[in-house]
């Protein structure tokens, strides 16, 4: 597969110009942190047995908060020491590699709930990758339906029929957006591209294709709305027999594996007479008595099934809503997988950034996750982590380290297995049903040394982390045209629940035998372990955010100064530390992409504050209860569906606090305490307020400005997005208790 050594270049790596400036700033900022802790030591040395308890508590809590902030700042800097930008020369691929020599590719798409992940969206994802500009006989698409739903199976039966028309249409019209939903969306595109599409859509052939797609979409959505596939939707005995395997739809929890070859590239052709890529539906076997390991288990089932059926050396993992946006992506990936100057024996994966459609203008819920998906990965020394979707793997990477191959339990699952039988042969189908069964992994290395790793609900982070610990390297690929486009949660509560689940999974890694600060440090070195720690320790952000949301404000209400006076030199230190950290984050954010704006950055930092007082805090609590053996909520799929009213609020940039959740209580208490503290500070004598309480007044004001959407939801709104009255009352009561407790201390 690799090109010759003297072939034209396929890619280039360029260090970013900001590197030197960032290192210089980091040196200055680190010196300021040392000065800060020197002051903390002095403050603690002044404490006496007669010192009021409130002063002792404030002093120690601020020390812990600052220590946590300093640690997290260090972890962030680890990915800003060696930032790079990669460029691919796709035009050189034909010069170094014949199409007949292209490697085969398998695509894995996972879905789990036809109501939270509408099947029509999953269908669009599958169609977009089936339409890749790549030899059809080398491309296979596998769908994992972990919900075991006949609704999803029916949708993909319809997709297989539509694909025979859609694939040649895309080729003939040189379509770039090969998800039909994206292609036919009104007013999509910008500038000249939009005008070109507008002209194409006036073509009667395009019109017929759109009518065909809308007909399929309506049929699928009607079936989902009814909750079953009625006889009027079934075309023939073959479909009836396949659908009969699901007698009680997706609610069924115990069942043998269901595997359907919907398109076979050895025999099925489109309307133009060309072979089509394989399309294979897989619902692995499940039993109530066997833990199914969530998405990691589903992916491992796909790894085994695909190894038996096609065994492509490279596979792509995609979330069900992450559609291809560039049909040439596979050739771009070959710029690395076929590069003789890259040690292929150590390259585990190529990760593309997650980019989302449907975000409102100012991204009020920070759904783009700029830090996680754009700002940090280019600077990770050994390459980016696995981000869960949009990632191309060497299959070999899932079978032990670069120099320590772990053989699977049967030869048919080996990376060297040669596929000789047709994918629908009786022998093949019997074997794939066996390896997809719920008891197959018992007494094997799957999930521990082989495949995607078990032990955390954030299987993407955990798997990528352990791959790097084993010695693998990875590459971050950021083309100008996004390779994939997905859907981010457009509901505040969905975003918080998703993030809470991540926190639980990350803490599972932190407190495991493979902790990033012990095992990771020994295996990868300081910089990479700190890069992984920046994500793993997200939960610890709740410590300084809780402290700085309450302690200085309660102290201000009670007339207790906790920060330096304006006339003291230490005042400048605190000012520099705050403005320096925020300014660096702002610069990196604005440099992260053309969609980065000042208002989006403001919302990004606001949501960071909100997460610290909600999902980070409650995720830590849920993890603690789980470790103590106390039952907590199970795994929940993040909803990709939104109702019309919710979508309208989101498009208008209006926060939706209507869903009752205990997570919002600490946040509501914090904004009330900050409001009272600001009022108290402004009521002080001007000279006293400026000299002794300036930083506390400014901090309270900062909290009030960030909390403005919540004040609106508490006091000024009457729509369904307002904060529930019981949460407002509970928050007011808790805030009053905090004030009373602080006054007595």
UniProtKB/TrEMBL annotation:
Keywords: Cell wall biogenesis/degradation, Glycosyltransferase, Membrane, Transferase, Transmembrane, Transmembrane helix. The keyword Cell cycle does not apply. UDP-alpha-D-glucose binds at residues 116-117, 146. One of its GO terms (cellular component) is endomembrane system. It is a multi-pass membrane protein. GO terms for biological process: cell wall organization; cellulose biosynthetic process. One of its GO terms (molecular function) is cellulose synthase (UDP-forming) activity. This is Cellulose synthase-like protein G3 isoform X3. It comes from Punica granatum.
């Amino acid at each position: 597969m690799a090109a010759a050594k003297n072939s034209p270049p396929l890619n280039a790596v360029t260090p970013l110009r900001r590197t030197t400036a960032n290192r210089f700033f980091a040196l200055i900022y680190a010196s300021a942190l040392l000065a800060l802790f020197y002051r903390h030591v002095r403050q603690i040395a002044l404490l006496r047995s007669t010192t009021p308890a409130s002063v002792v508590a404030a002093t120690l809590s601020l020390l812990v908060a600052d220590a946590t902030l300093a640690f997290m700042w260090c972890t962030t800097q680890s990915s800003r020491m060696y930032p790079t930008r990669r460029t691919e020369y796709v035009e050189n691929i034909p010069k170094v590699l014949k199409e007949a020599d292209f490697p085969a590719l398998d695509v894995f798409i996972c879905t789990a709930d036809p109501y939270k992940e509408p099947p029509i969206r999953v269908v669009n994802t599958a169609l977009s990758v089936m339409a890749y500009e790549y030899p059809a006989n080398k491309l296979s698409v596998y769908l994992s339906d972990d919900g075991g739903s006949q609704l999803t199976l029916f949708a993909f039966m319809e997709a297989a029929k539509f694909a025979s028309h859609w694939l040649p249409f895309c080729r003939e019209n040189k379509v770039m957006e090969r998800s039909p939903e994206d292609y036919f969306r009104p007013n999509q595109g910008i500038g000249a591209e939009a005008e070109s599409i507008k002209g194409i859509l006036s073509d009667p052939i395009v019109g017929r294709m759109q009518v065909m797609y809308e007909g399929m979409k309506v049929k699928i959505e009607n079936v989902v709305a009814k909750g079953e596939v009625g006889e009027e939707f079934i075309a023939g005995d073959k479909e009836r027999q396949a659908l009969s395997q699901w007698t009680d739809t997706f609610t069924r929890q115990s069942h043998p594996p269901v595997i359907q070859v919907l398109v076979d590239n050895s025999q099925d052709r489109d309307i133009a007479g060309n072979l089509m890529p394989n399309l294979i539906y897989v619902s692995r076997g499940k039993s109530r008595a066997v833990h199914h390991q969530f998405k990691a288990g589903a992916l491992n089932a796909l790894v085994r099934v695909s190894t038996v059926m096609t065994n492509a050396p490279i596979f792509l993992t995609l979330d069900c809503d992450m559609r291809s946006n560039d049909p040439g992506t596979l050739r771009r990936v070959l710029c690395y997988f076929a590069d003789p100057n890259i040690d292929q024996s150590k390259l585990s994966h190529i990760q593309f950034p997650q980019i989302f459609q449907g975000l409102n203008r100012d991204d009020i819920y920070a759904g783009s996750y700029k830090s996680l998906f754009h700002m940090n990965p280019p600077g990770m020394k050994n390459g980016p982590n696995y981000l869960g979707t949009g990632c191309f793997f060497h299959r070999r990477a899932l079978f032990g380290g670069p120099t320590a191959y772990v053989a699977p339990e049967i030869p048919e699952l080996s990376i060297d297995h040669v596929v000789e039988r047709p994918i629908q042969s009786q022998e093949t189908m019997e074997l794939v049903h066996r390896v997809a069964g719920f008891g197959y992994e018992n007494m094997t290395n799957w999930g521990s040394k082989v495949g995607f790793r078990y032990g955390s609900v954030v299987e993407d982070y955990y798997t990528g982390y352990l791959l790097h610990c084993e010695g693998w390297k990875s590459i971050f690929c950021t083309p100008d045209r996004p390779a994939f486009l997905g859907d981010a949660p457009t509901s505040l509560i969905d975003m918080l629940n998703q993030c809470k689940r991540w926190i639980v999974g990350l803490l599972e890694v932190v407190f495991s035998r493979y902790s990033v600060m012990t095992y990771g440090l020994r295996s990868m070195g300081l910089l990479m372990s700190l890069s992984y720690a920046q994500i793993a320790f997200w939960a610890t952000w709740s410590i300084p955010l809780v402290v700085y949301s309450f302690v200085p404000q309660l102290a201000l209400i009670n007339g207790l100064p906790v920060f330096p006076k304006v006339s003291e030199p230490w005042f400048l230190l605190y000012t520099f530390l705050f403005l320096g950290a925020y300014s660096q984050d702002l610069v990196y954010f604005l440099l992260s992409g053309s969609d980065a704006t000042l208002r989006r950055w403001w919302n990004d930092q606001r949501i960071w504050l909100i997460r610290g007082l909600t999902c980070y805090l409650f995720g830590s609590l849920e993890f603690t209860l789980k470790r103590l053996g106390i039952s907590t909520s199970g795994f929940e799929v993040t909803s990709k569906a939104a109702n019309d009213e919710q979508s309208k609020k989101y498009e208008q940039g209006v926060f939706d606090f209507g869903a009752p959740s205990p997570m919002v209580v600490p946040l509501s208490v914090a904004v009330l305490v900050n409001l009272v503290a600001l009022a108290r500070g402004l009521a002080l004598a001007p000279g006293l307020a400026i000299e002794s309480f300036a930083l506390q007044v400014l901090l309270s004001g900062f909290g009030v400005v960030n909390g403005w959407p919540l004040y609106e939801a508490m006091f000024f709104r009457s729509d369904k997005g307002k904060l529930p009255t019981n949460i407002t009352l509970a928050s007011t009561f808790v805030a009053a208790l905090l004030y009373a407790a602080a006054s007595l201390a």
